[in-house]
Write a structure and sequence with these properties.
single chain; nine-stranded parallel sheet; two-stranded parallel ribbon; 14 helices
Length: 305
Amino acid sequence: MSSSGAGTAPWRQSLGRVGVWVGAGAVGQDPGGFAARVERLGYGAVWVGGGNPDGHAFDLLERTLSQTRRLVVATGITNIWAWEPAALARRVTVLGAAYPGRFVLGLGVSHAPLVEGLGHRYEHPLKAMADFLGGLDAAEESEADGRDERPRPRVLAALGQQMLELSRDRSAGAHPYLTPPEHTELARHVLGEAPLLAPEQAFVLEDEPRQARATARAYLARYLRLPNYRANLERLGYSAEDLAEQGSDRLVDAIVVHGSPEQVVSRVRAHLEAGADHVCVQPLAHGGGIDAGALEVLAPLLLAV
């Protein structure tokens, strides 16, 4: 059984060029209703964050799939330190069989403070991911028992070169988070032509720069404290001053696009022109959470890129 999937696989076609990224808690207890709205607007996928660390999270994913008809549902990401491969394989096999071609497993190594909070030591994350993929392969083969040869597509949360190479070699592609188009160009160079490249792009639909940046900084605050994101931004040329406190205007504007609908579309197009196949937009609301109304405003423009 292949876990990678070909570039022409139905799930790749169903993703389309633009999807929606949402934190698991941002849509409350009605993720299916939110996803149904996203589907009606024409977006190709919903990427669900929050680490998806347990059975309850996968119950919500199943509800999301059950209340939509064509939408691809992906985890952005599932934290490998929270699962045993066999337990995750059982969940993936059930969803894959019930909703063929509509579930994508995004996997990530998370960050040291979060992993240590789960009771693990954050050591050798690249090896941990490679080992987990091997365990998942074996467990999925056992779960399928030779009866189902359809691919169970996976992508990896990849920022640095080595994890991007692992994404290329052992999965269907990469799902970078908190990255500008410059990273998309670098990622495509490492991945080559065939693997999926699906970066996330946060935005604030707000013309007043000061207010927009305040919303962006509230969103960025927790991420700028996490070492993997900081290291990646440093590799892209952002200085200690850019990363200090709530982030410089330069950094904020690079990571969270803000302004008019046309400015948001321009940033999405920049990712696509840099090599992305699919961009997951995350509409930030003032005061936190998701601005679902912005998705409606932008749908006609984004779906035309």
